[in-house]
């Protein structure tokens, strides 16, 4: 039923069929989406909970001792939490090599170590597993250089690389506070956006290391901001040295439940208070609801993650599922809003050094009559069709599909005599890709990109290096017969 509805929805995209598309889209509602999504979550949770080392048949050996060294900051219990074989456990002798390599990847996915080395010593039917790690630099005073625009190309081309649209500041982050995998970050930022913020997250607060708590608090303001979308481009108001156009205060508390290595549930209760100047209200009366200059609301947020992939930073093999559900109850400037996001990715190693990926992202929103500020669609963050980086396409429900074929042509690690930077990995992947997307809006305005199929083809190169830095250089052609070279600093 769900697949049939999707096919009908994406097929009817001829000009003049916007109303018909909208009717079909209404049929694809939460009745079908949420039960299917819940079923998928339960299946992934069950699979993740059952994940265990390969027991196999034949001779059994016992894990006598696990010896960890090099962890000057990270607690041993935090490291042992990530691996799925433990002292005193019997496993198949034939599976030892596979299990140790699999758990080596798990330790890399903690993003705490530059290197993980290991070796096994056998004494009869008992083995001793030695794990040596080289820790990263956890306390990172990073200089923030952030552009007001959605991506580098928009800032460089459309905004003529105006440095006044950049924000500069300092974030002091401890990614392994007290050695417990805790994160503590304090941010101070000036420039286009002035911001102060603090975030704290402790992933484990119980003896079983399955539950965590956190909180966040931030204040931000800008003297220029967007007030409307005109022909799929953002329109801005305000001057760089003028009065403040937008103020935002956000605070929240989080609860994390991680029952298995690959499975994670996050619950958040947030309070948000947004305010804009009267100038914006005169230009866009429905910027917030009820002609208000303020939007104050309480937000309930839930996120489910299943990371059954080899590398959480840059995946090449496995399956990944991320779902999010948000419900907002307005106090002022917003009535009620709810939406669900889903991201599913399948990654395969089809031949030696050859990889494919299929990634789907989608959103359903209810009700579909929201103030302008709360309707953002394709063109922001990671949700965009490649080749359409210069466009913002407003709407309510959307789907996005990405296909990649890539080959690893370089994979090397360089040793340098600098503490915390002793190993500098460099991996390079040329690729070809194809994207398709659709976003529905029953009131399209002057948009020429919603209520129609968007698609693109392209080629590029991915570079992955130290401290999870990713660089994507892509050349894409879209259905408007436009092409361009695009630069990104995140995963697909």
Q: Beta-strand percentage?
A: over 45%
The general outline is globular
Radius of gyration: 24 Å
Put simply, the count of helices is 7
Q: Which parts are unreliable, with pLDDT below 50 for 5 consecutive residues or more? A: 1-34, 45-56
What percent of the residues sit in helical stretches (DSSP H or I)?
10-25%
Listing every helix as H and every strand as E from the N terminus to the C terminus, the arrangement reads HHHEHEHEEEHEEEEEEEEHEEEEEEEEEE
Computed structural class: alpha+beta
Biggest beta sheet attributes: 17 strands, antiparallel
Secondary structure elements and pairings:
Elements lengths: L1 H10 L6 H10 L2 H21 L9 E10 L6 H7 L7 E3 L3 H13 L4 E11 L2 E10 L3 E9 L4 H7 L7 E12 L4 E10 L1 E10 L8 E12 L2 E6 L2 E5 L8 E15 L2 E14 L1 H6 L10 E16 L8 E15 L3 E16 L2 E13 L30 E11 L2 E6 L7 E18 L13 E11 L5 E9 L4 E6 L4
Parallel strand pairs: 1-4
Antiparallel strand pairs: 1-2, 3-4, 5-6, 6-7, 7-8, 8-9, 9-12, 10-11, 12-13, 13-14, 14-15, 15-16, 16-17, 17-18, 18-20, 19-20, 20-21, 21-22, 22-23
Could you describe the 3D structure shown?
The chain has 492 residues and is an alpha+beta fold. Among the domains are: 2-50, no CATH class; 60-135, membrane protein fhac (Ubiquitin-like (UB roll), Roll), CATH 3.10.20.310; 376-492, no CATH class. Helices cover 15% and strands 50% of the residues. The protein contains seven helices and 23 strands. It has helices spanning 2-11, 18-27, 30-50, 76-82, 96-108, 152-158, 278-283; strands at 60-69, 90-92, 113-123, 126-135, 139-147, 166-177, 182-191, 193-202, 211-222, 225-230, 233-237, 246-260, 263-276, 294-309, 318-332, 336-351, 354-366, 397-407, 410-415, 423-440, 454-464, 470-478, 483-488. The strands form three sheets. It has a 17-stranded antiparallel beta sheet that branches. It has a four-stranded mixed beta sheet with strand order 2-1-4-3, covered by helices on one side. The chain has a two-stranded antiparallel ribbon with strand order 10-11. Strand 22 (470-478) and strand 23 form a beta hairpin. The longest helix has 21 residues, at 30-50.
């Amino acid at each position: 039923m769900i697949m049939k509805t999707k096919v009908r929805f994406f097929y009817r995209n001829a000009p003049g069929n916007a109303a018909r598309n909208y009717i079909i889209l209404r049929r694809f509602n939460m009745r079908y989406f949420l039960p299917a999504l819940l079923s998928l979550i339960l299946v992934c949770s069950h699979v993740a909970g059952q994940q265990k080392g390969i027991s196999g048949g034949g001779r059994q050996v016992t894990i006598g001792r696990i010896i960890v060294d090099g962890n000057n900051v990270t607690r041993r219990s935090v490291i042992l939490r990530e691996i799925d074989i433990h002292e005193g456990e019997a496993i198949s002798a034939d599976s030892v090599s596979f299990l140790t390599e699999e758990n080596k990847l798990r330790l890399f996915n903690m993003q705490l170590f530059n290197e993980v080395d290991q070796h096994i010593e056998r004494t009869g039917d008992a083995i001793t597993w030695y794990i040596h790690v080289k820790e990263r630099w956890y306390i990172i005073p990073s200089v923030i250089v952030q552009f007001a625009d959605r991506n580098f190309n928009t800032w460089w081309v459309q905004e003529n690389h105006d440095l006044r649209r950049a924000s500069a500041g300092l974030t002091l982050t401890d990614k392994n506070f007290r050695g417990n995998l805790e994160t503590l970050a304090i941010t101070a930022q000036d420039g286009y956006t002035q911001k102060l913020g603090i975030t704290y997250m402790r992933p484990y607060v119980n003896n079983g290391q399955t539950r965590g708590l956190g909180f966040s608090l931030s204040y931000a303001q800008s003297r220029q901001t967007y007030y409307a979308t005109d022909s799929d481009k953002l329109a801005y108001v305000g001057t760089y040295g003028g009065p403040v156009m937008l103020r935002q205060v956000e605070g929240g508390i989080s609860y994390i439940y991680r029952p298995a290595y690959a499975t994670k549930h996050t619950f958040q209760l947030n309070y948000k208070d947004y305010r804009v100047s009267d100038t914006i209200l005169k230009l866009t009366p429905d910027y917030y609801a009820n002609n208000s200059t303020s939007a104050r609301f309480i937000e309930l947020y839930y996120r489910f993650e299943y990371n059954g992939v080899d590398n959480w930073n840059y995946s090449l093999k496995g399956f990944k599922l991320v779902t999010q559900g948000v419900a907002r109850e307005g106090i002022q400037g917003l009535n009620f809003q709810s939406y669900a996001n889903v991201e599913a990715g399948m990654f395969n190693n089809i031949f030696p050094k050859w990889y494919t990926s299929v990634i789907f992202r989608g959103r359903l929103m209810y009700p579909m009559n929201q103030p302008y500020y709360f309707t953002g669609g394709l063109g922001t963050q990671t949700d965009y069709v490649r080749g359409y980086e210069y466009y913002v396409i407003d709407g309510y429900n959307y789907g996005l599909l990405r296909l990649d074929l890539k080959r690893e042509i370089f994979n090397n690690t360089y040793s340098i005599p600098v503490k915390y930077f002793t190993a500098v990995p460099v991996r390079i992947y040329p690729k070809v890709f194809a994207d398709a997307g659709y976003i529905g809006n029953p009131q399209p305005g002057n948009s020429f990109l919603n209520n129609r199929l968007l698609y693109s083809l392209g080629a590029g190169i991915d570079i992955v290096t130290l401290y999870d830095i990713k660089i994507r250089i892509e050349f894409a052609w879209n259905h408007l017969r436009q092409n361009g070279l695009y630069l990104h600093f995140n995963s697909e």
